[in-house]
């Protein structure tokens, strides 16, 4: 749904399962979005620990976003999204976050559209700042 929202707005996203993604290729992307569920006490699932550490090492000019599913019956709703958000805010240009309860609904399609719009706006703003700095 998130990838579709970016396509609808003219972007060309590549989507990977984290275990199929070569972390050394992160630096090839203009924008990196992380999608995660939350595990146990609001934790990041084990499969995403390597990605979390690799994102911490990225250039401060990388535009990022994080989205994920969770369940409000747990004390730390979408805690993994919050943990990524805090790190990405400190280490990258964090554009937007999105939390979805359980299965995405039709309304969440609209929220994915707003998420994509915020990310792409932040990216075009960053591009403008960089070209002004280089001219
Ligand atoms: C053992 C277990 C622990 C979970 N812990 C949390 C949690 O701490 N916070 C949260 O928001 N969701 C928690 N969840 C909910 C999962 O994140 C949820 O299943 C998922 O976001 C919905 O995606 P799914 O449809 O792929 O299961 C937990 C689920 C399980 C099974």
TrEMBL record:
Record key words, sorted: Electron transport, Flavoprotein, FMN, Transport
Highest taxon of source: Bacteria
Gene3D superfamilies: 3.40.50.360
One Pfam short name: Flavodoxin_1
Location of the Flavodoxin-like domain: 1-120
Names of required cofactors: FMN
Organism: Planococcus plakortidis
Function: Low-potential electron donor to a number of redox enzymes.
UniProt family annotation: Belongs to the flavodoxin family.
Presence of keyword Transport: yes
Transmembrane segments: none
Protein name as catalogued: Flavodoxin-like domain-containing protein
UniProt GO MF annotations: FMN binding; oxidoreductase activity, acting on NAD(P)H
């Amino acid at each position: 749904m998130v990838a579709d929202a970016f396509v609808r707005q003219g972007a060309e996203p590549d989507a990977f399962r984290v275990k199929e993604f070569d972390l050394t290729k992160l630096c090839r992307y203009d924008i990196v979005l992380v999608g995660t569920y939350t595990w146990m006490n609001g934790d990041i699932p084990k499969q995403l620990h390597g990605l979390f550490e690799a994102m911490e090492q990225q250039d401060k000019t990388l535009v990022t976003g994080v989205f994920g599913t969770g369940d409000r019956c747990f004390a730390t709703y979408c805690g993994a999204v919050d943990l990524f958000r805090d790190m990405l805010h400190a280490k990258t240009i964090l554009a937007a976050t999105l939390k979805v309860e359980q299965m995405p609904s039709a309304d969440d399609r609209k929220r994915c559209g707003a998420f994509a719009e915020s990310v792409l706006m932040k990216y075009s703003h960053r591009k403008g700042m960089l070209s002004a700095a280089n001219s």
